[in-house]
Each structure stands twice: as C-alpha cells, then as structure tokens.
Design brief:
The protein is of the alpha/beta class. It has 10 helices and 8 strands.
Length: 297
Amino acid sequence: MASFASRLVPPVLAVQGRKRRYADPRATLARIADDRLRPKPYGPPRRLRRDVHISLRDDHGWPVYEVVGQDQRPERHAVYLHGGAWINEITGHHWRLIAHLAATAGTRIIVPIYPLAPLGTAAAVVPRAAGLLRALSAEHGPGQISVIGDSAGGQIALSAGLLLRQEDIALRRTVLISPALDLRLTNPEIDDVEPRDPWLARPGLREAIELWRADLPLEDLRVSPLLTDLRGLGPLAVFSGTTDITYPDVRLLVGKARAAGVEVEFHEARGMVHVYPLLPIPEGRAARAAMAELLRS
C-alpha cells in the first residue's frame, strides 16, 4: 500500500500548478522564455549533508561538479545527468540524491551542468556526455564507470551509453529514473496514464522536445534511445512509478533490453509519480537505498 506521504504528492503537485506548466504549450514556452531572461541557479544548496566534499571545474565551458564522501577515495565513479524536460535546471532534489549516493555508495559522482534547450540540443549535449563517460572509462576502466539519469537526464544517459556501445565500451551500470525514452510520445498506453499523471502532459513536453531535438529526427539515437538496438549495453537498472506518462515506454524498454540479452533490474512502484525516488517519501527513501546498493555491489 502506498504511504500516506506519497498519497499527498498529487494534491501538492496540483497546488503547485506543475501539470499546468505542461498541459498548455503556451505556458511551457513562457516558462522557457522567463528562465532564459532570469536563469535559475544550478549550484548545490547550502543545506546539503555535510559528509560529502564538493569541487568544481570547468570543462570547455560546462561547469562540472564532483561529489565524494568525506575521507573517501572511491574507486568507482558515476556521471549524474539531471532531468527537467531539457528546459529546467538542476534542483535541490537532484543534489540531495547525488549527495546521498556519494556518501553511501562509495562512488564519486560527476555532475555536468549541461546547457538547456534551446541553447543546448541533443546533437551537442549527448555526445559531450558520452565524451565525459569515455574519458572516465579511459582513465579508470569502463568496469568502474556508471551513468545515472532521471527523466530527460535518463534519455541523455541512455543515449550517451548507446553511443559508447557503438565503440564497444560497456559501462558498469546504467541507472535510469523515470526516463524519457521515445520522444515521439506515440505509445497508445500513454493515453490511459496521462489523465492520472499529476505532473506531466504531452502538449508542453512536445514544445520542449522540439527545441531539444532541433534538426535531428525524432527517431535519432540521440533523441529516442528506445528505438535503437540495445544489444551490447551494460547492466541496466530502471526505477519507474506507474502514474507517470513515461511508464509505458519504460515497460517497453525493460522487455526490449531483456530480449536483447541485457541484464535488467526493474523497480516498478505502483501508484508512484514521476521521479518518485527524488521525493521525501518512504518509497523514495527505499529507492535511494536500492540505488546506493546497486552502485556498491
């Protein structure tokens, strides 16, 4: 049974007007314009757990943070690619998950602050993300490198991992949280889920997707990784709530990956909303503990 705290999430999202931002494409475009005029901060919040050390470097114009547990010298490394529909900046929810994983999983977490659409596009951002993973793999060995992504960041993470797969580089693990997988958004099962999703809606998401894909076709690997052959991909772990319009494509991904011989661990959470592992609810805490164990094991 869903926890009392998780049952409060949909009404809280409704009060915050989260779905309205995506139900009306004009609202989505207005939000994009406002954020370009007044960019949101992207640095870690001041009130973050104190048992992590955070550093910052510049990587050809991208701010790249590194988060490690205090007094740790981890041998394993992961790149975290944040979500936000390709148009929203990293938030405190992301940073709290990142700090938790760094402190509890014995893993150095690398956090690139990639440019948002329309300045950042799939053709530019996905190969750069793959480049970060490639460089880490060359330095430490691919068996020590994982990639983690939520929502839009899950799309970037899987697309980047598949680019490396084409170079015969298989990452240690790919961890996806409510990933966007097929940006055509044509899965007929989405019609059943969308009215129950308290957060996401296709009209506004399609506007964001158009800015993100730019000149690339929707079927391109860098845009819709679900449409690609998954053979040769390293182990995959997927976390998804069922009250989420990304869930129907997540189910397709799990089936397709297993049929391609990919090791898959699927964490399906009945009644949970989009990116529930980032939320301060019991189900989110359980998912975060499972992720830390995945990175440790």
